[in-house]
Amino acid sequence: MNFFQQENLPLFPFIEGRLEQLNIYINNGITLENFGEPLTTFIQNLNFAPESFQTIFKSAYNVAFKKFREHILTHPCHELFKATQIFDPRFVNLTPTRDILFYSTSIMEFANPSYNLLQEWAIYCNFDLSLIEYSNLEEFWQKVSHNHLLF
């Protein structure tokens, strides 16, 4: 908890990014036919056939994915983590679209946005974030807050 209180960083996007990486890692493990030279060599040095371990490894990855799906992908905060990525200044530039409706499945207020929300969205999306230097989110929002005073 001390880490979260001391750091003023975009935590939710970081968590969501790590969850996406874990999902990809587990899915790759399920479909892999070769688990890499170091592991293959290790198994061979123990006088076992590496092919005999593929079923065991795939089963382990399947169990891991089942737990991941049950406990992470269906967790109520998972949608919040995904939705809040748009508030990370680094994510806006990487987003495939700046269309507000693109996010309407995650944030229901975006499905039928008010005029004021559309104005604020336009200001937010038109920041040239690459020119803003900051070391934490508080500093970033202080530097760009003058743009939001209109609302």
How would you sum up this structure, described in words?
This protein has 151 residues and is an all-alpha fold. It has two domains: 2-78; 88-148, no CATH class. Helix content is 60%, strand content 0%. The protein has helices spanning 2-6, 11-31, 37-45, 51-73, 76-83, 89-94, 115-125, 137-144. Helix 2 (11-31) packs antiparallel against helix 4 and helix 2 (11-31) packs across helix 5. The longest helix has 23 residues, at 51-73. The radius of gyration is 22 Å and the shape is elongated. The two termini are 34 Å apart. 7% of the residues are buried. The model has no long low-confidence stretch (mean pLDDT 75).
Low-confidence stretches: none
**Count of alpha and pi helical runs:** 8
Q: How much beta, percentage-wise?
A: under 5%
General shape: elongated
Rounded radius of gyration (Å): 22 Å
As a percent range, the share of helical residues equals 55-70%
Secondary structural class: mainly alpha
Q: Work out the count of structural domains.
A: 2
What is the end-to-end distance? 34 Å
Q: How much is the average pLDDT?
A: 75
TL;DR?
It is built from 8 helices and no strands. The chain is mostly helical and 151 residues long.
Keywords for this structure?
2 domains; 151 residues; single chain; 8 helices; 0% strand; mainly alpha
Q: What does the secondary structure layout of this molecule look like, with pairings?
A:
Blueprint: H1 2-6, H2 11-31, H3 37-45, H4 51-73, H5 76-83, H6 89-94, H7 115-125, H8 137-144
Helix pairs in contact: 2-4, 2-5
